[in-house]
């Protein structure tokens, strides 16, 4: 079969494979097996045909005849086979053809478990190092694309002359905010003023330019917009939007901070005479303001004159009546020769939040002498719930700066000396909590609730103590010490959580039995059970030595280091010891007060008291040495505060001042750098009294 085109040319397709005439080509046909021999049908005599079934050029044989001859030969061979030949096993071998690769893309990722993973990582590291070295090279530029910059073109246009004018006026943020609510011409004038006050030039509107408003108010300040907005497009705030905007202002932190500052300014103006007396500085008197208004001016002048006369009277009384008890023996010789010392109340730290609580403890901040921490608890509550720890400041005596709410009543607190922002609080449940007073929230910084060794009784006293660690440079470490009603003196470790270790376990001593006619022998009582710890105080020079008072009336001198933890026992009180304090100057003596109505003066080397002070039949809740006189101490009883001067008398106090008839005094604290005394009562008030 041949194919010719329109011009008569032979366009018959050639076969894809041209065989060599001199080489015999064998092609595998059907395989037939007969016995042990195999018959191959070869296509030698059959001309090789192309895809269309045409004969190979030059063969000269008819493909149809060749195909029929092969079919007849196959039929003859098939007829020659027998059933026995068909039952024989024939082995047929199949071979896989070569794989044809259509597309091959090598992977850019290599498994970390591959054999050449190390080599790939090494090449990547070399590449990264090379990139780092080329960062500072001027010839190295990292770009995503490289596009030629278009040629710059200048286009000029002709317009009318722009007239510029400077205008200025005084506006505030409220005027700019109210301009959005206006519907007429006020926004334009105020906007121009706001633009000029910022030092910008404003264009006068022309016939082609619409009116514009440029002021936008926000909580952070006033911004100026450069867009030209028509007056008709200014949205008028709805009542709901105005309400939301007012609420946003009232709840913003900046507004609250400004209110705090304003409140402090007002409080300092109101309490200025009292604060001046507290700081021992002259009281400022407001000058008389002349006015033409008749009755109002006269009434104002009369009120001012009356107030000034009262202040002068108070000043005269202060000059005569306020005498430091420590200088009485030197200047006057005896209290009878001069005026008697008195107490005058300046103000009281109290508010509605603390009115239902009782003051349990007070402590000054070590870095800021104007910051006072006060602990409150419910005195008449059985479970001692709802305690408070408040931080008061002289800048606002009517409301505390920080309020920390506790689940149980606060029994003790103290500020840290190394970190003055840390406030340790002990509660009636035995837990110890540390707060950060810099935070405005009452969240705890550390808590002993997760400690397995926490106290099981109320923490009656805690204190931050600096102790030498024997370092060459005199390094000191601060530790938090506590004494609890469970009879344990513990040291708390400040880590990721609060945990403690026991320094001492107080044991109750049995009474000694004395036989008839036998003298008393000084011997230690056998241990029977734990005694509740009520108070403690560390030696002012050697902080490894401390005193511990118990509910059985005994005072123990203890050591933090060494095998002998108890160095001595002082017996004299018949009731629980509420407070024990070392003398700040004479470090060998100390004071103690008890529920047996007495206050005792002890010497370190004597087991019996040197002096016993008792005036009225009332429990002594707290005592404290005066910071400016080594002979003066103050004792707080249920109904009154007593000031004793040992250089004047050891039989009766110099000052015995009754408290509020409806309140009982609970604790006492001397003010720092001033002659004032702080008294806490059972109604939640802390009175500041001038000596």
TrEMBL record:
Pfam hit, one: WD40
A GO term, aspect molecular function: dynein light chain binding
GO BP, sorted A to Z: cilium movement
PROSITE patterns per record: WD_REPEATS_2
Residue ranges with Basic and acidic residues bias: 192-211, 238-247, 307-318
Compartments, record wording: Cytoplasm, Cytoskeleton, Flagellum axoneme; Dynein axonemal particle
Keyword Endoplasmic reticulum recorded: no
Region forming the signal peptide: none
Full protein name: Dynein axonemal intermediate chain 4
Organism: Grallaria varia
